[in-house]
Amino acid sequence: MLRIDGSKGEGGGQVLRTSLALSLVTGTPFTMTNIRAGRAKPGLLRQHLTAVKAAEAVGAAEVSGAELGSRELTFQPRALAAGNYHFAVGTAGSATLVLQTVLPALLAAKEPSTLMLEGGTHNPAAPPFDFLARAYLPLLRRMGADVTATLDRPGFFPAGGGKFRVDVRPQALKPLSLMSRGRVLRREAKAVVSMIPFDVAKRELETVGSLLELRPDQLRPEELKRGQGPGNALVVEVESEHVTEVFTGFGERGKRAETVAEEVAAEVKRYLNAEVPVGEHLCDQLLLLCALARGGEFRTLPLDGHALTQLETMAHFLDVKVDVGEVDRDVRDVVVRG
Ligand SMILES: Nc1ncnc2c1ncn2[C@@H]1O[C@H](COP(=O)(O)OP(=O)(O)OP(=O)(O)O)[C@@H](O)[C@H]1O
């Protein structure tokens, strides 16, 4: 039985989710200790427990330690089962992260699957639905996978209540090559508010528009009528010839709309200035997809803690070689070989 120390690297939920995903795909059982030891509230929170339960269902797995607050888990998959699944986090915990836990396994299953996911769809420190639908899934489709996602309703922290559907047709993944971004074709900023003043959206767009030199027709305020509680997200989409990237900031109580906009604009500028196709968040998520495809190469920003943790966690389950070459101070070339 593989033994994994969950406090390694970031010491967060990613070590657990990546381990579950790769355990399912490879059929390798594991025990994890020190789950999320690097976080203020360690152990399994609702989102992580839902990911464990989802993986248990998809892999007909034998599991012990699957309880709220648990810091130790044993997971032994038996057989992958496609199907119609419904996974509800029950809080505003990220439902997109639950999806990413089981998606590799469902791509490797024999039959198509349909998933209904409920929880947070626009969470800080997790892939927002817009990123999933317009950055992550298009690349996954380019790698040969047939996966589509449809948002039913958004869910923000702290109320949750978001819902989306995902259809998966199993395919073997092909290696991806994404070494250049090409020309930037379109830039757009969308500010969404739910049950908070519309003015917040306008102020965010005004600031992000001036910092990124966007025209008025590239700024889209959106007020949700059926919002599931208060929430605000500022989403900047950059569509280039070879890739689309999505950057997101979240409003919080006590945080000025202008600050939310400045932070997102800084992230977008860093990406644009480095002239790379793959941003920081996409990087750690693409690493796993390339490892599953047994190959791939992409140009990105210097690897952050999540990407380094991803490399360390993947190495427990897969015999892939990953080279990270420094092109210049802000640019790295990642090559994955199976
Ligand atoms: N704005 C964003 N856009 C896209 N992806 C994001 C964004 N912010 C974070 N992510 C991704 O979400 C994942 C978060 O991993 P992390 O280990 O922090 O998990 P977590 O479960 O949210 O946190 P915790 O450690 O509290 O459990 C990473 O893959 C990261 O790239």
TrEMBL record:
Pfam families: RTC, RTC_insert. It catalyses: a 3'-end 3'-phospho-ribonucleotide-RNA + ATP = a 3'-end 2',3'-cyclophospho-ribonucleotide-RNA + AMP + diphosphate. InterPro entries: RNA3'-term_phos_cycl_insert (IPR013791), RNA3'_phos_cyclase_dom (IPR023797), RNA3'_phos_cyclase_dom_sf (IPR037136), RNA3'_term_phos_cyc (IPR000228), RNA3'_term_phos_cyc_type_1 (IPR017770), RNA3'P_cycl/enolpyr_Trfase_a/b (IPR013792), RPTC_insert (IPR036553). Belongs to the RNA 3'-terminal cyclase family. Type 1 subfamily. Its EC number is 6.5.1.4. The active site is at H306. It comes from the Bacteria. Keywords: ATP-binding, Cytoplasm, Ligase, Nucleotide-binding. Catalyzes the conversion of 3'-phosphate to a 2',3'-cyclic phosphodiester at the end of RNA. The mechanism of action of the enzyme occurs in 3 steps: (A) adenylation of the enzyme by ATP; (B) transfer of adenylate to an RNA-N3'P to produce RNA-N3'PP5'A; (C) and attack of the adjacent 2'-hydroxyl on the 3'-phosphorus in the diester linkage to produce the cyclic end product. The biological role of this enzyme is unknown but it is likely to function in some aspects of cellular RNA processing. GO terms for molecular function: ATP binding; RNA-3'-phosphate cyclase activity. Residues 180-272 form the RNA 3'-terminal phosphate cyclase insert domain. It is found in: Cytoplasm. It is an enzyme of class 6 (ligase). GO terms for cellular component: cytoplasm. Residues 9-324 form the RNA 3'-terminal phosphate cyclase domain. ATP binds at Q100, H281, L282, C283, D284, Q285. This is RNA 3'-terminal phosphate cyclase. GO terms for biological process: RNA processing.
